[in-house]
Amino acid sequence: MLSHSISNATAPAPAGPVALLLLAAGASTRMGQPKQLLPYHGHTLLRHAAETAVASGCAPLVLVTGALHEALVAEISDLPIQAIHNPDWETGMASSIRAGLAAIAGTRPTAVLIMLSDQPLVTPELLRELMARQQQTQAPIVAAAYGDTLGVPAIFAQALLPALLQLQGQQGAGRLIASRGAAVERVSFPAGLLDVDTPEQYAALLKNPPYKP
User: Fold this and answer.
1) d(CA 153, CA 142)
2) Which UniProt keywords are given for this protein, alphabetically ordered (predicted)?
């Protein structure tokens, strides 16, 4: 059984605009079918992630698609999320981050939260805790900690947006997180060890109930 605990789950979200990028551009080659559309507790993985993003209180919200677009847009058409297509998605995650940041450039957010569509155990409470921790500490990055990893979902202060834009190819936000060392604040999220890249991981997910804080 996976652990679903997070620290200070009831902490309120900080005041001020925090934008959120939901990245869902991959082709799901290891899964063999679009993982964003896999069923999960009455919805799809993408719909579940999108509803989690909405419940976080972030604004604006941007979904970045790639290999699929129309089918993913249909999943979130009734939610307050802007969907954009990254035509360069095959070059790697960095291009999706750049596309998402371009979409929010005019909103001047105080920080940007990045999350993926294949981490279904992420909760609104976790996202709010990341935001609250960043507000409290003014750390440049607050990242989820699982296993030996510091990774997404993670929140990046406005001052680091140029560094996100400089990522290239397969470099995701994890590269920037790793480069900041001890300056990165962490929020414990052991359930983050499970993402959904393979049929075996999907089967493991379905054996566990959805997290209820």
Assistant:
1) 9
2) Nucleotidyltransferase, Transferase
> How many residues are present in the chain?
213
- Residue boundaries of the structural domains of the chain: 18-206
What token pair was written down for 89? Answer: 């998605």
Q: Give Cα separations from 101 to 43, 79, 85, 190 (angstroms).
A: 27, 20, 13, 28
Residue 39 binned pLDDT confidence (cut-offs 50, 70, 90) = very high
178 touches 167 (CB < 8 A):
no
Q: Are the CB atoms for 102 and 30 separated by under 8 Å?
A: no
- β-pairing, 184-188 vs 43-44, is unpaired
Rg (CA), the chain: 16
Domain 18-206: give its CATH architecture.
Alpha-Beta Complex (3.90)
List the helix and strand counts (H, then E) for the chain.
7, 9
Amino acid symbol at 177: I
Q: What is the pTM of this model?
A: 0.90
Q: Where are the alpha helices (DSSP H) in 31-186?
A: 45-55, 70-76, 93-103, 124-137, 161-165, 173-179
In terms of Cα–Cα distance, which of 144, 125, 128 is closest to 136? 128
pLDDT tens digits, 57-98: 999 999 999 999 999 999 999 999 999 999 999 999 999 999
